[in-house]
UniProtKB/TrEMBL annotation:
Residues 92-254 form the Peptidase M48 domain. Binds 1 zinc ion per subunit. Keywords: Hydrolase, Metal-binding, Metalloprotease, Protease, Signal, Zinc. This is Peptidase M48. One of its GO terms (cellular component) is membrane. GO terms for molecular function: metal ion binding; metalloendopeptidase activity. Residues 1-21 form the signal peptide. Belongs to the peptidase M48 family. One of its GO terms (biological process) is proteolysis involved in protein catabolic process. Its cofactor is Zn(2+). The keyword Zinc applies.
């Protein structure tokens, strides 16, 4: 009994050791039990399914804005990664930006750059800069593989619980994927990101929006407006992105650094809306 437990621990340790990815933004080693080469196809499939089951808005000014701002954030990410020695990091990304007709106050970016913005968030993002703040943040979760880490953590729990019968290509993977990304109809409830992942996404997102030419101060205003929506029925985005005074203060403190980073890319003026 003891012996098999040791074997399991050894296997888990080896798995974790062999399955680390480096977060290019923080330099930190992160857990990646499911490599992006497996994760991205699942994400792309789930994204297409989501689009087929929801009303995608095309050709309107708002839909164009989502594409425009999303593209700018993607270009900013590529410029930052290239300049910091991570050429090719986005090779397998297939960016897509869609506006979906849904009153939920929400937006997300799945692995590989698959973005959805719900119409319900637009009254809170207001202009382009507010949308850039949301997309910069959501894209940063994807770039830093936060969902993947959450999925890896769930897999480890399962391995611990059921022994070694967890194959990486198991059907259970889809359940774990949906739990990590929250778009599956069966699971549906995405767990909130951890405080440290939120701070990381805030920091990276602020830099990206600044490099994209948007005033990072607008992120502070955006989260203030978002928090003001709280109360009895907090918006969906708030349920996965708990916001509070310290978060807003932290964002405010990070603004000068984001602007400084953007200046390295020749960006000296920042759009307010
Ligand atoms: Zn977040």
């Amino acid at each position: 009994m003891m012996k098999s437990k040791n074997v399991i621990i050894t296997v888990i340790t080896t798995l974790v050791f062999l399955s680390c990815a480096t977060n290019p933004f923080t330099g930190k080693q992160t857990m990646a039990l499911v490599p992006n080469s497996q994760l991205f196809p699942t994400a792309f499939q789930q994204y297409d399914q989501f689009l087929s089951e929801n009303k995608v808005i095309k050709g309107t000014a708002d839909a164009e804005m989502v594409k425009r701002v999303g593209q700018k954030i993607a270009v900013a990410a590529e410029r930052w990664l290239n300049a910091n020695g991570h050429v090719g990091y986005l090779n397998d990304y297939k960016w897509e930006y869609n506006l979906v007709d849904d009153k939920a106050v929400n937006a997300w970016c799945m692995p590989g750059g698959k973005i959805v913005v719900y119409t319900g968030i637009l009254p809170i993002t207001k202009g382009e800069a507010g949308l850039a703040a949301v997309l910069g943040h959501e894209v940063s979760h994807a770039l830093a593989n936060h969902g993947q880490q959450r999925m890896s953590a769930s897999m480890l729990q399962q391995i611990g619980a059921v022994g070694l019968n967890v194959a990486l290509q198991d059907n259970k993977n889809l359940g774990l994927f949906n739990q990590a990304y929250g778009i599956g109809s069966q699971v549906g409830v995405m767990l909130p990101f951890s405080r440290s992942h939120e701070t990381e996404a805030d920091t990276i997102g602020l830099t990206l929006m600044a490099i994209a030419g948007y005033n990072p101060e607008e992120a502070v205003e955006l989260w203030k407006r978002m928090s003001a929506q709280g109360g009895q029925a907090p918006p969906e985005l708030l349920s996965t992105h708990p916001s509070n005074e310290s978060r807003i203060a932290n964002l405010k403190a990070l603004v000068p650094k984001a602007k400084e980073e953007a200046r390295k890319f020749g960006v000296t003026s920042f759009k307010q809306n």
